[in-house]
Design a protein that fits this description.
The protein is α/β, with parallel strands linked by helices. It is built from twelve helices and seven strands. Among the domains are: about 110 residues, Conserved hypothetical protein from pyrococcus furiosus pfu- 392566-001, ParB domain, CATH 3.90.1530.10; about 40 residues, no CATH class. The strands form two sheets. It has a five-stranded mixed β-sheet. The chain has a two-stranded antiparallel ribbon with strand order 6-7.
């Protein structure tokens, strides 16, 4: 059993690696009543497709529940940790009991398990994943580096997903609904927040690709650059400057801005936490040996 002060290892290696194992002499799954199972308040997934649930319910009526759910015991029953689709579909199929593995888990472990199961099944939309990442960071003091390791994602992927939370609510809603991709959202993030909904409409109405959305954002930002260039020719953008800026963003995993001056220019690298500053420092100057 994992204590409160310990963290289970191997989140990137499959759900089975997460579950604290009972001794070999103890039975694994057991049948428990569905009406004794309460929802997981830390469930990262907010939406379930009705047609997919109906299909799963039909399969359960014919074959039963093949894979046990994971629950933790409470004073008045059980709290669901992983397997929400199976529970809902089993209820739709008219079952009264369901196979389950019972484990005693801390709040942090419940959220981790629910998050990883959904990530591995690709059941979370990007906004649900972003909110779950933020919850783990805010409530349990995870660093981005530690979180990325534990959910089996690159740190830059986690950082980019978290930045979705900085977008205008209309853009976040479009990402959650699948109207635009994370790539579209990152492109829109280059605009002022208040301008994002208007450009979002242009992207969706025109069915623009990510590259087209990036080009649209670039063109919308050009007038301000042109005005600055007229006032001071030294501020004119080199045609390749935007590409260099984007390459630096990808390499460093954070927002980077280049600005020319009369005697050269400057590079502005943004960071959003002490942990991210430390990561950037190690990447730029080399981690200590």
């Amino acid at each position: 059993m994992t204590t409160q002060g310990q963290r289970p290892h191997g989140l990137g290696r499959g759900l089975a690696a997460l579950i604290p194992q009972r001794p070999a002499t103890t039975a694994g799954a057991t049948e428990i009543a569905l009406d004794r199972i309460s929802e997981n308040p830390r469930q990262p997934r907010q939406r379930l497709a009705d047609d997919a649930l109906a299909t799963l319910a039909a399969s359960i009526r014919e074959h039963g529940v093949i894979q046990p759910i994971l629950v933790t015991e409470t004073l008045d029953g059980y709290r669901l940790v992983a397997g929400e689709r199976r529970v809902r579909a089993a209820r739709m199929a008219g079952l009264e009991r369901i196979p389950a593995v019972v484990r005693q888990l801390a709040d942090r472990e419940q959220l981790e398990l629910a998050l990883v199961e959904n990530l591995q099944r690709e059941d979370l939309d990007p906004m649900e994943a972003a909110r779950a990442y933020r919850q783990l960071i805010d409530e349990f003091a995870f660093s981005q580096e530690d979180l990325a390791s534990r959910v089996g994602r690159a740190r830059s992927t986690v950082a980019n997903t978290l930045r979705l939370l900085d977008l205008h609510p209309a853009v976040q809603a479009a990402v959650a609904a699948g109207q635009v991709s994370e790539g579209h959202a990152r492109a829109l993030g280059g605009l002022l927040t208040e301008a994002q909904p208007r450009v979002l409409d242009l992207v969706t109405e025109g069915d623009l690709s990510v590259r087209q959305a990036e080009e649209l954002v670039r063109r919308l930002r050009e007038p301000r650059q042109a005005i600055a260039a007229e006032a001071d020719p030294a501020q004119a953008r080199d045609p390749d400057l935007d590409r260099v800026e984007e390459d630096l963003r990808r390499a460093l995993g954070t927002k980077v801005r280049l600005a020319k001056s009369r005697r050269g220019g400057r590079i502005v690298i943004e960071y959003y936490s002490d942990e991210e500053l430390s990561r950037l420092y190690d990447r730029l100057v080399g981690a200590p040996s």
